Every structure is written in structure tokens, then in C-alpha cells.
Amino acid sequence: MSVLSGKKILLGISGGIAAYKTAHLVRLFIKAGAHVRVVMTPASKDFITPLTLSTLSKNPVYSSFYNEDEQTVDNAMWNNHVELGLWADLMLIAPATANTLSKMANGNCDNFLIACYLSAKCPVYFAPAMDLDMYKHPSTLASFHSLQQFGNIIIPAESGELASGLSGEGRMAEPENILAFIEQDLSSRLPLKGKKILVTAGPTFEAIDPVRFIGNHSSGKMGFDIAICAADLGAQVVLVSGPTQFETNHAHIQLIKVISAQEMYQACHEFYSSVDVAICAAAVADYRPKTIARQKIKKNASEFHIELEKTPDILASLGKIKQHQFLIGFALETENEIENAQLKIQKKNLDLIVLNSLRDPGSGFGVATNQVTFIDKQNNIEPKPLQSKELVALDIINKIIAHYHA
Ligand code: C5P
User: Fold this and answer.
1) 337 and 368 share a domain?
2) Reduced DSSP (H G I as helix, E B as strand, rest coil) percent helix, strand, coil of the chain, to 5
3) What is the pLDDT, as a whole number, of residue 33?
4) At which of 171, 189, 207 does a domain end?
5) What is the DSSP secondary structure assignment for residue 78, as one 8-state letter?
6) Which atom of ligand 1 is nearest to the CA of 268?
7) DSSP-assigned states of every residue in 174-194
């Protein structure tokens, strides 16, 4: 999945021949799962029509401070550049002509695109496009310098044949290269970039005989949501999951499917030394049959007993050999919740525990929401509201980000 998926992109088009390539660029952004809105300088409309861009972006295109569709200026609707600037997760000016770059660098706000640019708080990328001598002119270089000082990011022009017939540096980067540049740049800025995270999810099934097992109602949703959220924010994730209905083909998640607690234990220990964080969200069976019958057990006797033994406590075993890892466990308690969770932090050598109580309606197995309380090893207690498991996952991941960026 592209890092641009779900991102809101404000594309500013200025008046250069490369503007014709923005139709393809918008298509690429949409294909990557982004939401696109387009603003144009008046001059750019000579090179590509707003209709093309509104059709491809599925949004109205803006090029002036008021709605030009209205019959008279008296009835005109004001186009809100501040709202557009703030809407964007990122702004891209492509093509960025020498004129527009100079206006951006000097705050010369005489068109709607520049007003949006000055209102945008998000990262701004610009892809210059001009003839080779213009590209090298000290005035243009001064604009590049100022914009980079402001924190804007240049997507360098490419070399090749230019509209003037000359050949050299100044062609706007090809749309595919612009997309790849932005994806790469955004990925490198993700807060969990370079971090490896182990997540356990789902129930475990403990075999009684070839057809029966001891299991529980865990759906695995919480663990999968945590894994996806961590991967979306740049982490490399190893997700060790018991039997669930969920699948993932996220490029940054390695899914390891296990059945029993013993298999989950082995998979976790295989990866633990190489990870920075481990989050144990699985509902591991606490007991398993001491022996597994080789054949299906017949129903002869009126009573039947299974002798059980304890499964390995995976989380506690990870706590025991913890070195640099940030270790997070879950606790599902029905009484003395806080005290029991605090004891668990010590007993299992955790950094953070996520407590959910079955007493809270909307929490626990098989529901899409969860109401949790965070307790850390310094005994800070932070109750959270009832929210979707996706948002609970984000809260957990934010705890990890805060740990590394404190
Ligand atoms: O001790 P308790 O089962 O309440 O602890 C729950 C936490 O321990 C959860 O994070 C769960 O994933 C983990 N756990 C484990 N292995 C077990 C039992 C629980 O990793 N055998």
C-alpha cells in the first residue's frame, strides 16, 4: 500500500507547458489512494483545462478567489484559500514556473494558488519546470534557496529535450518520478521508520485430539489493527497470529500464522532479539491438555476429564530476557483491575500495560470498540474513552512514538 493512501494532496499548477502532464500525475495520486484537490494559476489554464483536472480528481478545481460560475460578481461565492491550505496533508506545486517560484519565495500573493501556498501548514513540495538558462539563473536559484529555507522540498528538474527545442536541465520531473520522490520522502519521515515491532494477535487453539481443541473467542482484530497502524507509520512488523479470519498483505507486515501457545512462543522467541518493541495482544490459552489423543476420543463414559497443564507465558518469558526492547502487554481483568494490572507490570517486567475490563460495555472480544486504561511502569494511569479498536491501536502506537521521541 502506498504511503499516500488516504492522504489529502493539494496540487498547485502554474503556467508552463509541463502542466499537460499533471493529468497523469493526478491519476497516479488517485491510484495510490490519495484525495486530490487542484488549484491553478490563471496562466496554467492555457495548457490544460480545469475540466480535465476536476474530472480526474473528482473535485472542483479552483483558480480565483471567487466562484467564476456565478453570473455576477455580486452573487459570487468566495473560495476559501485558508480552508484549502489547511485541508491538505501535503501541497505540491507542479509545474512550478520561475514566476510562481519567485512569488512563493517573496510572498507575492496576487493569485489564488499563492494564497493557498501561504495558508498551507503542511509539507510543500515543488517541481520546477523551465528552460535550461532560466533554471540556472541566479534569480531562480535564489528562489530555490529561499523556499528550501522555508522548509519546502524541491523535486529537481530532469535533463532532456525542452519545449524551446534546446536540450538540458529544466524539464519537470516525470509524474512517476514525482510520485516516487514524494512517497520516498514521506516514508523517510514516518515516526517509526527503522523500528522493528513484534505483535501477537488472536487466540491459540490447544488440541485435545485430532478434531477438538480448547480455544477462546478472541477475534484477533486488536492485534491486527496494532500491526497495521505500526506498519503505516513506518515500522517493520512481525505479526504472530493464532487462528483468525484476518489476513494482511501489507508490504511491511510479515504474518506468521500459528495455532498453539507453544508455536506462538517459538515464533516470538525467534524474532524477539531483533525487535525494538513487542506488543502481546494475543489471548493465549493459559492451559492445554497434558497429552493429545492420537485418535478421536470416543464418547463412552458418562463423565470425561482432561488433565491440563500450563502453557508457557510468552509475555513473561519475553520480559525475563528483555534488553533494549519496549515491552507492552494486555490485561483483561474482572476485579481489582488497576492493582492486578500493576502487579502484572512487575511480574512480567513490562514497560506498559493496556488494561481492558470486561465490565465496560463495548470492550473485549468480538466487538469493534474497546475502552482501555494505560498503566506504565512508573505507575502513570491514563484512562481512555470508549473508541474503535483502530483508534485504540493508534493510541498504543503513539505511546511507542512518545517513548522514542521524548
Ligand atoms: O497473565 P495474563 O494472561 O492476564 O496476561 C495477559 C497478557 O499476557 C497479554 O498481553 C497476553 O498476550 C500475554 N500472555 C502470553 N502468554 C500466555 C498468557 C498471556 O503472552 N500464556
Assistant:
1) yes
2) 35, 25, 40
3) 96
4) 189
5) B
6) 20
7) PHHHHHHHHHHHHHHT-TTTT
Question: Do 130 and 30 belong to one domain?
Answer: yes
* pLDDT the model gives residue 366: 66
Which pTM was predicted?
0.83
Would you say 63 and 39 are in contact if contact means Cβ atoms under 8 Å apart? Answer: yes
pLDDT of res. 69 = 59
Low-confidence ranges of the chain (pLDDT < 70): 67-77, 359-366
Separation of 71 CA from ligand 1 center, angstroms?
68
Task: Tell me how far the alpha carbon of residue 306 lies from the centroid of ligand 1, in angstroms.
Answer: 22
Same domain? For 382 and 316 the reply is: yes
Atom 7 in ligand 1: residue holding the nearest Cα: 330
Give the position of cell 506504565: 376
CA dihedral 248, 252, 257, 263 (to 10 degrees): -160
Give the total number of structural domains in the chain.
2
- Residue 264: which domain range? 196-291+307-404
**Which residue numbers are catalytic?**
216
Q: How many helices, marked H, and strands, marked E, lie in the chain?
A: 13, 22
- Whose CA is closest to atom 17 on ligand 1? 313
Is 169 within the bounds of a domain?
Answer: yes
> What nine digits make up the cell of 176?
512517476
One domain for residues 71 and 164: yes
| Ligand 1 mean position, distance from CA 312 (Å) | 9
Q: Which atom of ligand 1 is nearest to the CA of 330?
A: 10
- E strands, 123-281, in order: 124-128, 153-154, 158-161, 167-171, 196-201, 206-207, 213-214, 236-241, 253-257, 277-280
Residues with CB under 6 Å of ligand 1 are 200, 261, 280, 282, 284, 286, 311, 313-315, 329-331
**Residue 346, C-alpha cell as written in the block:** 512487575
| In-domain check, residue 2 | no
Ligand 1 pocket: which of 313, 345, 370 to mutate (most atoms within 8 A of CB): 313
Backbone φ and ψ of 57, nearest 5°: -85, -15
What angle do the packed helices 138-149 and 98-106 form, to 10 degrees?
Answer: 50
Put residue 208 in one of left, alpha, beta given phi > 0 → left and psi -120 to 50 → alpha. Answer: alpha
So what's the pLDDT on residue 2? Answer: 86
Query: How confident is the model at residue 166, as a pLDDT?
Result: 86
User: CATH number of the domain that 117 lies in?
Assistant: 3.40.50.1950
Query: CATH number of the domain that 342 lies in?
Result: 3.40.50.10300
